[in-house]
Amino acid sequence: MNLKTLLWRSSITVAILVIILATFYAEENGRGRQVWKQVEHDIAARGESLNWNDYIPKPVPDDQNFYAAPMMREWFTRHTNACPASLAALMANPDSEVDSFDEISASNYLAWCAAFEPDLNKVREAAKRPAARINGDYTKPFSQPIQNFVSYRGISRVLAHRARCHLLVGQPDKALEDLTLLHDLNFTLAKDGRPATLVEAMIHIAISGLYVNVVACGLNSHSWSEPELEALQEQLSEIHLPPLLVYSFQAERAGACHLVDMSVKEMMHASGAPKPASDLGWWFIPHGWIDQNKTIIATAEGQMIESVDLTNQTISPFKAKATVAYWDKTFQRTTPWNFIASLCIPNFSKAADTTGRNQTWADQAQIVCALERYRLRNGQYPPTLAALVPQFIGAIPKDIISGKPMTYVRKDEQNYLLYSVGWNEADEGGIIARTKAGAEDRDNGDWVWHYPEP
Questions:
Q1: How far from chain centre, in Å, is Cα 255?
Q2: Where are the beta strands (DSSP E) in 48-99?
Q3: Comparing C-alpha atoms, which of 333, 336, 330 is closest to residue 281?
Q4: What is the pTM of this model?
Q5: How confident is the model at residue 223 (pLDDT cuts 50, 70, 90)?
């Protein structure tokens, strides 16, 4: 074979390979672009946004900003090292369960806490500001300024602990002050109902559950007076967790898709030192694969969003579980179309479950406050919840799972049972399911408010 023939055949081979590669890239890019455009269209048609900039909190004046108040940025945001020594000491003190305290121990704890009252008062004043925005760079999702969740959790536990101690020593008015600060501090994580991240929303949801637990302590011991019950009822009525969860899902979806685009662009166009081979590989990945990964992210998170019905204020465990099944099937094996998405999707099902539970506890506590006010006026509990409206409550919160009225059974004049169906969506007559170890079964049984405590 002469050189001319060899060159001719080589040219033909190269041309065929180029055509095959061009066809492959064109097909993969076209397929990815088509499915991604459809997802973008569907999301826009629902009035939702995939633009990360729409989720960046707007700047606010310092005099209206919780984090601009003295001490607040240092204590309640991350990447700062100016933690006030007094609040650090307060958090460092072990806060064992109050149930193990007697009145003397509770009194001693409260006396020890008194030294920190000036700093807590600063938090109390700052939490009255109408906005809460940490100033900084929000252009990169998941790298934006973030709260110090350890501080939030620690101070919240201290306030809950103090409130239970105040109840134990017969000072419900002081307990209400602690609970009010706990309530107001918690809402700095959800000013205007717009948590920036799912983590932020879940910390708010967890602290809401902590708050309700302390309210329940006072209810079960008949500690609250009617004015205190009214104040607690108003605070409980402000707890609306499903909208926060949905907004955080939407923000996570927009942030994840934006981060994928940013990461690919940075790795492909970075200047300076030579890039690792793993980064150079992004030059050869069809962009259609990136679009298909974003499609999976947006679809999976969109399905979880659809499990929350904000119009009817319900959460569908069936849809949440179906979404998990979709994820399991999608990520059963790693492919070019899901390898990025598999790294970006957190456990949204657990988030929905926890949100449903804690909203139920808050709704039930609101009803129980009204029941307790009725008892204080009439010496007994009402025969039905309808007797509470409108004198003791404006409207009875519905079961967040079924959308129907919660079940209320008056056992006698001084005892009743109030419950919602649980995550299995079955009415089991107010039964709390237990695991073999004796813990409450999260997937079965009803969500029950036993009053008084069994």
A1: 16
A2: none
A3: 336
A4: 0.87
A5: very high
